[in-house]
């Protein structure tokens, strides 16, 4: 399976730290999968102007193509002003409406306080649902206090990241089997 991890902000380090931990967990569990990690801090993305995603070039084309070809997507983002970062919203705007059809999506959110724990529910899940994603019901919410010196120090967060990884891979595997069974019903 193709797995894409997207750290959805151009500033800060906590989301990237969480996503890198998730990447190492995936690599330990499933070494046969192709895993790609994209950090928006390291990419030079075009601003969406309504073109087809294939009409862009450079980092924009690389990222959007990887997302379109992925079977599993993990999206990590920090909460800014009680919402998702504009840079992450731009990524969604670069893609077609059905971009996440038949893809399983897991979510990780970082924030300065517990006050924003529902932002994934109210801001991100509706977008992903509109784009036809199969969204994992639970997500991992990580507060500022769960980090220290560039690492996650809360064992409960590490446990929940491991559980998100395992359950997302499991759901994607079952979903792939269902799709294969459906496709095998046809003779062409």
UniProtKB/TrEMBL annotation:
Keywords of the record: Flavoprotein, FMN, Oxidoreductase
InterPro entries for this protein: Flavoprotein-like_sf, FMN_Rdtase-like_dom, NAD(P)H-dep_FMN_reductase
Any one Pfam family match given in the protein's UniProt record, by short name: FMN_red
Oxidoreductase found in the keyword field: yes
GO molecular function: oxidoreductase activity
NADPH-dependent FMN reductase-like domain boundaries: 1-143
Subunit-level organization: Homotetramer.
The name this protein goes by in its record: FMN-dependent NADPH-azoreductase
Taxonomic lineage from the root: Bacteria, Bacillati, Bacillota, Bacilli, Bacillales
Underlying gene: ssuE
């Amino acid at each position: 399976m193709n797995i894409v991890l997207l750290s959805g902000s151009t500033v800060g380090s906590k989301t990237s730290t969480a996503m890198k931990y998730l990447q190492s967990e995936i690599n330990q569990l499933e070494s046969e999968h192709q895993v790609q990690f994209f950090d928006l801090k390291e990419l030079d993305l075009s601003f969406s102007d309504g073109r087809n995603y294939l009409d862009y070039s450079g980092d924009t084309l690389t990222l959007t193509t990887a997302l379109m070809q992925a079977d599993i997507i993990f999206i990590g983002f920090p909460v800014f002003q009680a919402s998702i970062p504009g840079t992450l919203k731009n990524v969604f705007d670069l893609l077609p409406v059905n971009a996440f059809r038949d893809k399983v999506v897991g979510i990780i959110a970082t924030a300065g306080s517990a006050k924003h724990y529902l932002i994934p529910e109210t801001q991100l899940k509706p977008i992903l649902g509109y784009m036809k994603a199969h969204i994992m019901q639970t997500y991992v919410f990580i507060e500022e206090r769960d980090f220290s010196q560039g690492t996650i120090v809360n064992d409960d967060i590490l446990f929940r990241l491991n559980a998100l990884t395992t359950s997302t891979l499991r759901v994607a595997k079952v979903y792939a089997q269902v799709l294969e069974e459906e496709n095998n019903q046809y003779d062409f």
